[in-house]
Amino acid sequence: MGRPKITVIGSINMDLVVKTDRVPKMGETVLGSQFLTTPGGKGANQAVACARLGADVTMVGCVGDDVFGRQLVENLRKENISTENVEPVTFLSTGIACITVQDGDNSIIVVPGANYAIDEEKIQQVEHLIKESNLLLLQLEIPLKSVELAVDIAHKYQVPVIVNPAPAAELPSSMLEKITVVTPNEYELETIAGQKFEQPDDFKKAIQSYAGQLVMTKGKEGAYYTAADGGIGYCPGYRVEAVDTTGAGDSFNAGLAVMLAEGKSLSEATKYAAAVGALSVTRLGAQSGMPTRHEVEQFLQEREGREL
Ligand code: RIB
Fold first, then answer.
1. Is 99 exposed, middle or buried (0-12, 13-18, 19+ CB in 10 A)?
2. Which of 77, 72, 108, 86 is nearest to 8 (CA)?
């Protein structure tokens, strides 16, 4: 097959990143060591990663009619992503994320802004795009009603759909049934399953109820997935030196999306996605850290037959 056609409907943010040795307590001021303004947003991050992995990507989203919005659209174009369906709106400013990076790990506050202008009407306008896609990729930084409608449309045309339920939210069961693969981390799975995991293995019982339909990421430990018969598969994480984990989940989802759109099995796609995720954390910035297909193939070859 040629390049798979993937439509991403989701957020486009400007990330305001501060590196610091210590996160301040409430009321305290500390000196940070580095600041950068860099393209982000779970939707746009996943779109960029899919494009670098060789997919033909269309982005659907909203930005503000402002400097950040223009920079972000330009950046998507440079990544060879179709931006015809990225709309600048005048009544809200571009979404931003304040990100603090300490010891390679991060904490994030997102102000969605224009991302919340992706309403149901906008989703209806792109029905033809969803229909023509090999795969639809969604996250939860846009209104849930819009995500639900997009899932409905994909289901109507039997287009596979991945929902990355981040940030965490409860998902209606009518929607879950129509999703091809849902990709929570452990905390997001607790929210979906409506239960707190008290014991280390509690998540395994929860994921068994989503046969063939769920991949749970567990940070550097790797990922678990459910086989069609309800059995649990596990793919260990690749050991790398983490510089910035921002966008690790996004790169994982992109790897999974491109492989599933190319017809690979859930286990093959999960292994590939874990490699994409591992490579992305070795660089600072969400989109700037996304690896190319060539880099992933090289990495997999190097690690083949070695300890992960
Ligand atoms: O997943 C990482 C992303 O979450 C960041 O780029 C930030 O914009 C937030 O949306």
1. buried
2. 86
Per-residue pLDDT at 278: 96
Q: CA torsion sign, 140 to 190 to 287 to 257?
A: negative
In sequence order, which residues have a C-beta less than 8 Å from that of residue 46 and are 6 or more positions away?
Answer: 8, 10, 137, 139, 164, 250, 251, 253, 254, 257
Span 5-46, pLDDT tens digits: 999 999 999 999 999 999 999 999 999 999 999 999 999 999
Task: Give pLDDT < 50 ranges for the chain.
Answer: none
Q: Please give the Cα distance from 281 to 162 (Å, whole number).
A: 22
Compute CA 221 distance to the chain's CA centroid, rounded to the nearest angstrom.
18
The tens digit of pLDDT for each residue in 257-277 reads: 999 999 999 999 999 999 999
Q: Which residue has the tokens 């796609």?
A: 269
Which residue from 14, 15, 183, 250 has its CB within 8 A of the most atoms of ligand 1, so it is best to mutate? Answer: 15
Smallest CA separation from ligand 1 atom 10, residue: 41
Which strand (E) or helix (H) includes residue 192? Answer: helix 186-193
> Going from the N-terminus, what domains does the chain have, and what CATH number goes with each?
5-23+35-303 (3.40.1190.20)
